[in-house]
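Readers of this paper often ask what the protein records in our data store actually look like. Nothing more is needed to write down the fold, since each code stands for a local backbone conformation. Below, we set out a record of this kind in full and without editing:
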Amino acid sequence: MTSGSEFLLDAPADLQDYFREIAARMVLTFDIQRAEAVARINRHWRGQTFDERKDPPANNLVVPAPTHRGRRHSTRPDYSAAGPNDLVLHASPDYWASVIYFEEVFEDGQLRRVARPAPPPDSECWTLS
């Protein structure tokens, strides 16, 4: 956790501001309190390091790329040289707000997006009241 921050992850100041923007989008879009938005972000990226000098990128930071069936060569972007900050910033705050807030479930033969439950009230993810 960066000292003095509401987020439970190690990230430089510019990325902390980006996480605050994601939280703001969640508040406006999904009509939730800021404390819940921060808790959801903390749960999503808990334990991640966003400082390239400390750790290599983690797998769940990569923005999903579409799969193209029937082609011989991969069309997926090569993220091997990118740091975690580059991967997170590659997508908009609206994208991350949606990814963090929703999950896809397959029910009754259909794929639907439903809101993930908020972290439990006693979770360490809640850093604001």
User: Anything to note?
Assistant: The first strand starts at residue 102 and ends at 107. The beta strands are 102-107, 110-115.
